[in-house]
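Q: How would the structure tokens look for this protein?
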Amino acid sequence: MNIYISKPGVMTAAGVTIDELWDSVVAGNQSVIKRVKACNGVDFFAAKIDEEKLKSASENNSRILQIEQGALNQVSDDIEIVKSKYGSERVAVCIGSCDNGEEQSISADRVYLETQKFPEDFTLEVQSASYVAKYIAARYGLKGPANTFSTACSSSAGAIIKGAELILAGLVDAVVVGGVDASSDTVLVGFNALEAVSPEITNPLSKNRHGITLGEGASFFILTKEPIRPDDNIQLLGWGESSDAYHMTSPDPSGEGAIKAIRRAIESAKISPKDVDYINMHGTGTKLNDSMESIAIDKIFGDYKVPVSSTKPVTGHTLGAAAAVEAAICYKAINNVALPVHVWDKEYDPELPNLNIVEKNYSANKKIKICLSNSFAFGGANACLAIGIR
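A: Here is the predicted structure in token form.
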């Protein structure tokens, strides 16, 4: 059975539609990454969505729901189409997220400390893991399974995979999939405590890399067993997951967990390494992640020299939404000759394998047909998506 992907709805600092986001990653535009001050007084670089764009997307006062609805608005018509075609009981929701409504809870706590009362419109439910999926199901009247997946940076990859598996199992006919996360003080301070945040804009694969730059965003699309529209020919060709459980926060330096996920995606898609036209790297800019991912790519693809780039220097690391945002970028790459540029200082780390990095003004010698999107999370929760056309 084929699994088709609808046109994504996107809400990120780098673009509030898929076309805006694509223009940013192809141009390598980092203008939205700016210094912000967290509650501990420390300055960070972060990619935060413009407040006016959030307000225009939704009247909700929850930041994560503003981000979520901004992306959902772009796929609402497709949701209604599949709901009408298959029935609300046959449409599921699978969403990846990490932070949920923590920002709103922190604001409510501040009000409570000052007044001994929580705001009238505050409910702790916004911080529950299930909320972002339940919100979609309730808003669109969907009665199929509604699940949230939270495996750190690979959350929305897992959501996409589980959505596809629901269709393959015959349990549903369509699934709203994707991810959403907001950049809160808790996230900024937490990653800083791990010494994982870069003092400058993230610089993946460079010998001068020092960590991540955080972002926020959402990306949603509809998975179906047949195209929603006649010209919808892009598919989720395959996927792979692994759990190496090497360390709570550090990846296996050998890259074995990543290798398993990538190989399983290739096998699932019934393709070979030479068929892959582009790899969107997890590419966080940390010493260990970039090292093990480079080793994994080199071991599998070797002399094929598949073009690679990380788009996180443009979007920021959107955490639970990252895999869905990057899947949307891969969707846009299909049938194109341009590719997302790898923005860095061009000071390659000599300890890393030599990869074929996409530089500015890159143009492929043929239209892109198959992309891989890597997501490698804390705790060794690894995932790889194969997206393209047959």
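The mean pLDDT is 93.

The radius of gyration is 20 Å.

Upvote if useful.
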